[in-house]
Specification:
The protein is built from eight helices and 19 strands. The protein folds into three domains: 85 residues, Pseudouridine synthase, CATH 3.30.2350.10; 137 residues, Pseudouridine synthase (2-Layer Sandwich); 55 residues, Archaeosine Trna-guanine Transglycosylase, Chain: A, domain 4 (Roll), CATH 2.30.130.10. With 299 residues, it is an alpha+beta fold. Helix content is 22%, strand content 37%. This is tRNA pseudouridine synthase B.
């Protein structure tokens, strides 16, 4: 007799407050043990030095992660002006120093204005971007000169919260809200370049990924200490919190789960989460060729 497969649990999301000193993959590995499944992923990598919101998907909810990743993100960070590093953050060796003592807050704000809105950003060479199948950071560590192409990103807001002079350096506590794919390290670097003194990131905390905020985030140590199922946001609730909701009747639900299409969604936002008459989450759809077509079915 063929061995019966275990049914896949619906799963859900966990909003983890990632500690410093761990990679995002390290957190995923811990969550696999806590959740008792290998089907775990994360939405948006955080560097080891960074802390804050890391959205983890468990079981079927892993299929939401690509869409969660594409949402806006928010960060609190500290930028040091007057010192450049090879990694554009505090983990890399210093490559250049300059006296930032004469820089005014007005000059900083002028430079920040030029880095706000729709910009072309060159990612840090020490990043996880792949070049011919190999990570950029691996090529740099092997001694290669790596030049990455600029890519469009949007900086919705870039605000200075504190302005602190420390010897020859100038430390800025800033808050940034931006599109996915933005490198805050690169913002720190480019701000330093614009002011003529160099700069790098000394601290980074992600405060939001889409609708998921640091107020919801649970420290990894607390999740490990509880020993309970870590999923705190069931699949249906995760979909409702992330996407525009559309409710359908029984006939439409039956058609959708069998690969059929629906009349176009009224929402201009894509994708849209579709829920059945019993409140269950059925699928993500997007408007294409005059119909609302499923891009991921969850039943």
């Amino acid at each position: 007799m063929a061995k019966q497969q275990k049914p896949i649990r619906p799963g859900g999301l966990v909003v983890v407050d990632k500690p410093g000193g761990m990679t995002s993959h390290d957190v995923v590995s811990r969550m696999r043990r806590l959740a008792g499944t290998r089907r775990v992923g994360h939405a948006g990598t955080l560097d080891p030095m960074a802390t804050g919101v890391l959205v983890i998907g468990v079981e079927r909810a892993t299929r939401l992660l690509g869409y969660v990743t594409a949402t806006q993100k928010a960060y609190d960070a500290t930028v040091r002006l007057g010192e450049s590093t090879i990694t554009d953050d505090a983990e890399g060796e210093t490559v250049q120093t300059a006296d930032a003592g004469g820089i005014s807050l007005a000059a900083v704000k002028t430079a920040i204005d030029a880095l706000t809105g729709d910009i072309e950003q060159v990612p840090s060479a020490v990043s996880a971007i792949k070049i011919n199948g190999q990570r950029s950071y691996a090529r740099v560590r092997a001694g290669e000169q790596v030049e990455l192409a600029a890519r469009p990103v949007t900086i919705f807001s870039f605000e200075v919260n504190e302005f602190r002079q420390i010897d020859r350096w100038l430390d800025l506590a800033v808050s940034v809200r931006c599109t996915s794919g933005t490198y805050i390290r690169a913002l720190a670097r480019d701000l330093g370049v614009a002011l003529g003194v160099g700069g790098h990131l000394t601290a980074l905390r992600r405060t939001a990924v889409g609708s998921f905020t640091v107020d919801q985030a649970v420290p990894l140590a607390d999740l490990q200490a509880s020993g309970e199922d870590p999923v705190s946001i069931p699949l249906s609730a995760a979909a409702a919190a992330t996407f525009v909701r559309r409710d359908v009747d029984e006939e439409e639900a039956g058609r959708l789960v069998h690969g059929g299409t629906l009349v176009p969604s009224e929402s201009a936002t894509s994708p849209v989460a579709v829920f059945g008459p019993d409140g269950s989450f059925l699928a993500l759809v997007e408007n294409r060729e005059g119909r609302a077509r499923p891009i991921a079915v969850f039943t």
